[in-house]
Amino acid sequence: MNKFTITAFFIITLSSLLAQDKKVEQLDEVLLPSSKLRTYSVGFKITKFNDSILKSNHQTLSALLQTESSIYFKSYGVAMLSSPSFRGTGASHTAVLWNGIPVNSTLNGQTDFNLINSVSIDEMTVRAGGGSILFGSGAIGGSIHLKNNMDFEGDQSHHLLSSYGSYNTYKVNYRFKTSTEKSFVQIGFGRMSSDNDYQYWDTDKYNNNGDFFNNNLNAVVGFKLSDAHLLSLFLDGTMSERGLSNTLTAPSDSKQDDENYKLLVEWKYTQRNLTSILKLAYLYDQFTYYAKRSSSDLFDVGDAKNSLLKYQLDYKFGPKTKVLSGIDVSFNKGGGDSLDGVNRSSYSLYSMLNHRVSHRFHYDLSIRKEFSDTFDVPFLFGVDAAYKSGDFVYKINASKNYRVPTFNDLFWAVLGNPNLKPESSYQGELGVEYSKKGITASANTFFIATEDLIKWSPNSYVDVQNGSGGGLGAWTPKNIYKAVNYGAELSLKVPFAFGNYTFNSQANYSYTIAENKQSKKQLLYVPKHKLNYTLRANRGRVSGNYHIMYHGKSFTTTDNSAFVKGYLVHNFAANYTLNLFKNIQPIIGFHINNLFNKEYAVVDYRPMPGINYQFQIQIKI
């Protein structure tokens, strides 16, 4: 099937759908962007974090996900790089989408969750399993969806969240929202900073050069042009400066400044059986690295500029069948001291079918093909299904997914490898969910086989003969190994009451094997065991929660001879709602992290903080 045939097929499909059914249906008053995600993911495990959890979160977004999901975060320390990993895959195998737009770095393929302000978003959805067909490159392990919602209820509100804690850490977030029947405006600002100078255990050393700050400004604007047309604008900008702290064995005087800006314009058109969404986005990322922060004239710069067009057409053929077809177009440009004005362009065509055979059985079929001016991307396909029987839902999915090489992999000065192939994977999953009287439980097993994995490794003589840059021993990227990931995930949520108290108990456990297929050794920084438990309690104006997080040991060498020890960390929080004014009821909170002062590290030689405290006040008007 050639490029012309595939393109023609999608154009004819979209045109024929547009030609049908012209009756206009009024837009919903509350727009929930995650609905499409659930419709075409019936066989996948999906976890949603609502507005109340995100707005009351005093931690970073990575800390929230660590304690509330099965995702593992490789964190180099407080405010340092913190990137997610699903099911033993790499950080670049997790797709992160902001209002439907992929925001993974074009330079390294990752997303640093310590640079995301949780209060700037309204809804976060975690989808485990392969999602490259709908979400593009990188969605091999799973995807995380960050959303802004809007309503047209004609009200106005203010939300202020401020906290102060150990190591001179403070955080402030303010958000203003106003709306009419035809318009919606929301503006937010956030800042977090810290000296971050905690002491390392059993030493006279401190986390020197670990200070940081980041500022965030965000806005959402929506206009109902008519009952069928909605025009939206989303803006998000972050500026940060952080010292790259020392380790147990090496001092540091370096720092990194980051600037990240996102702009999205969206036009949504709704008819009775048809929804058309056009998105135009521009993303800009820049980092400036100072080897010595005292020498401001000695630095390295890198940047990426991404322009994206995304069009989706969702058509309902009847009460049981829906089809979603779309096209993604992207233009990427990278520059800086190690990237000399490189460019890449691509476009993708995809289509998904959702069929409700009966009220018990649903299934999805999906395909995707991407065309790039840099390399060949494999044809993708997927299938998933769900069957409901009583209080149980049985789920299954299988798919082929991919990740394209990053700009650093392809074009890094001297060392980049323009001959790299995209990584590809086949995966399958079986799951069962139970729900009755508020009690929910799930069990999932998964298998992922990935080939052409890209790894930076020293050049051999053969590599040099084959054209690898940098000479013998230089570290360059290569498609050199295959990996197999398999395991299981369990979750349980139980609400209950005792007297005047209400409780919610939630636990998540994951067992993960991620092996180099050739050496049969566990991949680096993939703990086999991960467990978190949360108990929430409420009584009138008083509420609290208790977190327990366990990570098993993770290996730090390819032969598995060295590892970071496992750890068990406890956190506690309590909140009280003051009854001072009729329409203003401030919530004051007290949080204790690492309650028992446990010595632990996520990355070798980078200790995490001991017991630390935070006071918080939240005001809604």
Write a structural description:
Residues 3-34 have low confidence and may be disordered. The chain starts with a helix and ends with a strand. It is globular and about 75 Å long. The protein has a single domain, classed as TonB-dependent receptor, beta-barrel domain (Maltoporin, Chain A, Beta Barrel). The longest helix has 16 residues, at 3-18. The protein is mostly beta strands and 621 residues long. The protein is 8% helix and 55% strand. A hairpin with a 4-residue loop joins strand 17 (300-316) and strand 18. It has a 22-stranded antiparallel beta barrel.
Secondary-structure topology with pairs:
Blueprint (H helix, E strand, L loop, with lengths): L2 H16 L11 E2 L3 H5 L6 E4 L1 H5 L5 H8 L3 E4 L6 E4 L8 E5 L2 E2 L20 E6 L3 H4 L6 E6 L2 E2 L4 E10 L3 E11 L3 E12 L17 E13 L4 E15 L11 E16 L3 E17 L9 E17 L4 E16 L5 E15 L4 E12 L7 E10 L2 E12 L3 H5 L11 E14 L2 E20 L2 H5 L9 E24 L2 E16 L12 E11 L2 E10 L2 E2 L7 E2 L2 E11 L9 E7 L7 E3 L2 E2 L4 E9 L1
Parallel strand pairs: 5-8
Antiparallel strand pairs: 1-9, 2-7, 3-4, 5-6, 7-8, 10-11, 10-35, 11-12, 12-13, 13-14, 14-15, 15-16, 16-17, 17-18, 18-19, 19-20, 20-21, 21-22, 22-23, 23-24, 24-25, 25-26, 26-27, 27-28, 28-31, 29-30, 31-32, 32-35, 33-34
